[in-house]
Every structure is written in structure tokens, then in C-alpha cells.
Amino acid sequence: PIAAFARRVLAGNYDPCIDAEASIYLNKPEVKQALHIKEGIWWEACTGNVQYSDEDYLTSMIPVIRELLASGIRMLIYSGDVDSVCPATGTRAWLKTIEDAAPMQRGW
């Protein structure tokens, strides 16, 4: 399966919105329960519900995250180790800028 996936990516025939593995996993009842997701919430990638604009594309979300943490909201921040859009190194860098905002648990 991984070789077939790699061939599709290399051939330019890969659309991340077609494969539903993430949606299937994140909508499992046991996963939703572990993440404390409310009843009736359905996770879906690439819905088009979030509208991005060029105006705020590069706006930092760090102030918003600081405010949410200060209000007591707990967060799970995850970066895939092979994500070319949001690399883990970038996530680590901005997390260092908010270490004073809330206690953080590292590792699993």
C-alpha cells in the first residue's frame, strides 16, 4: 500500500482530500471520546467551510492561542513529521514563544 501511495504522489496523482483515512479515524467513537469531542460533531478534511484570504494568510495566530490558553482552554497541538506545509520544526519554534502562557506536556 505504501509503494502504491508513493507512486501516486510522485506521479502527481495524489489529492489529500480524496483519501478518507483521517476522517474515518477521527470520527471513531472511541477517538472522539478520548479527545472529548461533543456529541454531534463530525470531523471532515477539506470541507471548504474555512475561507482563507490573502489578507490574513500570514497573520500570526500566536496572540489568539495565548488568549485561549490564558482562558483555561486545553489544546492538543500536533504536527506531522513529514508535513511540508506546517513542518514540526516550525511548530516547535512557535511553541517556544508561548511556553510562559501555560504548562505544556511534551512527549507521549
Summary keywords:
single chain, 108 residues, mainly alpha, 5 helices
Can you characterise this structure?
It is a single chain. The chain is mainly alpha-helical and 108 residues long. It is 37% helix and 0% strand. It contains five helices and no strands. The radius of gyration is 17 Å and the shape is globular. The mean pLDDT is 78.
Q: Report helical residue fraction.
A: 25-40%
DSSP, total strands: 0
Taking pLDDT < 50 over at least 5 consecutive residues as the criterion, the unreliable ranges are none
Report mean pLDDT, rounded to a whole number.
78
* Shape verdict: globular
Report, as a whole number of angstroms, the end-to-end distance.
27 Å
Q: Number of DSSP helices?
A: 5
Main sheet overview:
none
Q: What is the strand content?
A: under 5%
Name the structural class: mainly alpha
Gyration radius over CA: 17 Å
**How is the quaternary structure best described?**
single chain
Order of helices and strands: HHHHH
Q: Summarize this, please?
A:
This protein is an all-alpha fold.
Secondary-structure map:
Layout: H1 2-10, H2 21-26, H3 29-34, H4 62-70, H5 88-97
